[in-house]
Amino acid sequence: MKHTYNFQTIWVRAALILVLFVSNLTVQAGGPPTSAQVTASTTAFLKRFVNKEGEVNYKAIQKDPKQLDALLDDIASFSMKGASQAELYAFYLNAYNILVIGEIVSNYPVTSVQDMPGFFDKTQMLIGGEKMTLDELEHNKLRKLYDDPRLHFALVCGTTSCPRLSREAYMGKELFVQLNAQTKRVLTDPAFVKVDAEGKTVKLPEIFKWYESDFGMSGKTGVAYVNQFRDDKRVPTWFAMDYYTYDWRLNDQKDDSKK
């Protein structure tokens, strides 16, 4: 009787191992994630860990990294085959923002991305089966391919002076509308475009200086570019313009309960 019990136990364990093995093959056979799957997972993640001010709850992500890890896996294994240009554009925007969060979480607690040497130009990340840095992603996969200054308001590098991070992933079929909405939201934010009506001055973030050539390709730079998205809150063109110093502090949530 004892021998029969051992045989049955071994058989059951072997059967379970076989089931797990077959299940794993089935998952792998499903292939890389689709654009729709990555978009849905990204939105779910952002809505959970990013508040309405665009601040990220890095501490909470570090405590429960399952969603982040799954997203990083999806970004690494994403296949460009069959994706439209709009879907690729959206994928790279989302990938940049998630990879920034992932790298910060892996080094958290930190107070600034500047506390992580090589954050932008040295650390290699896997994106669609290709290794590259954040700088290479921004310059080679986005700026060189898409003549669109609005991307500078969609990319969020984890700092206080960055645009507010959207709680919704970018998606190919809605991308033009989303980018317009995000750009308008950023350029009407008084913390981003600082207008002093009494002093007749306006201060813009330094990205307008760093990427002046990008904005110039659109035909408008500085205040002229900003006013395209401000409707009735346009900045008078005769106001003195300057750039405020970039704030590299982390865009970390100050209150875990604030959503």
Automatic annotation (TrEMBL):
This is DUF547 domain-containing protein. It comes from Hymenobacter tibetensis. It comes from the Bacteria. Residues 1-29 form the signal peptide. Residues 82-185 form the DUF547 domain. The keyword Transport does not apply. Keywords: Signal. Pfam families: DUF547.
